């Protein structure tokens, strides 16, 4: 085993940080002259991703249920790793929870015959020349930092949604992706779902007339009882799990009917705390608002206003921040309206049938993962879409699953279907909805400058402060 795998990098080792900083500074200079050159030494292996002995090598950062639920101790194959491994081999797994990364390593042995190396610190991965792809499945508040540093280290990235915790992080992701020319796929897998692709092909073909509105029903968020301070579970590095966000006590209470059988500030339940996530607005919102923005033709421009028509939180707020840190705090009920400069509206709701309703001057269509309905859909039997209409929606690439699209994009050095740039625009609407919900007022937005108009307090939520030692290196 190489030295880098037996030495676990600690957060406060100045010499290691200095070495990493110098290496990345040198790498940025190289990438500025031609990002594709970094991939050249690995191109042969990447181009043969379907061959058994010639496949990209993948490092997993975050091995919870979104990566593979079996790594949490639940005997279900749910997660993205079972699909990702069809095209690449996991050779390293990383998690702040020793128990999960141990189970993940055992899983990879069953997949390839060789157990993946196990590391506690993702930076040990960035210095490895044999890693082609970094697969990020951490809680949301870690996504941008790891993705940016992976790109700067010359790795391609598959990052689960939502890509960022703030709009400012999205701007940084866009800048670094453009600078390094890395291939980055966001895990909004609905972009590769045939039902959604067909819905998005119907709209430009005029099947519902002039588009007027999209409504995204994303479901409400749960509440919790008051959670007492609790001992950190054995094997979990709570300081490392929190990473960039301000430190807090670990809280947990047994009895919840979920995969952890508890309410907590940690695994799985992180998405119901604004400190780590945006609640349902960025959880399911990252999926449905992404598709709606795509369908509206606004993937290069954001809204001009976001209005929280109605919002309900489980705790009280002051100046946009929860006053109670013992309970889940993300919005449980909401109706939020975003308006674009062309007058089209995008509404995000907690109620209604989970999915997206597109309304036009001549009809409407509804789409979710289970069905696609509407008169325009029924009319396809007698009036099918033009040849290659679906491929045109799919960036004129072959219609394949979301993971294969990523690996093919990495091979061809082409933009994947769920790219950083358009996802940032869609997710910005979700983030603005969250800010409006927290402050309880309408926000005016300049989509060109990516700034709040006339509201300094709202503008302050566009970015966040990072804990010392956890800042994003760019």
From TrEMBL:
Residues 92-187 form the Gfo/Idh/MocA-like oxidoreductase N-terminal domain. The keyword Ion transport does not apply. It is an enzyme of class 1 (oxidoreductase). One of its GO terms (molecular function) is nucleotide binding. It comes from the Bacteria. It holds the Pfam family GFO_IDH_MocA_C2. The keyword Nucleotide-binding does not apply. Keywords: Oxidoreductase. SUPFAM superfamilies: Glyceraldehyde-3-phosphate dehydrogenase-like, C-terminal domain (SSF55347), NAD(P)-binding Rossmann-fold domains (SSF51735). Its EC number is 1.1.1.18. Residues 227-471 form the Gfo/Idh/MocA-like oxidoreductase bacterial type C-terminal domain. PANTHER family: BCDNA.GH03377, OXIDOREDUCTASE FAMILY PROTEIN. This is Inositol 2-dehydrogenase. The gene is iolG_1.
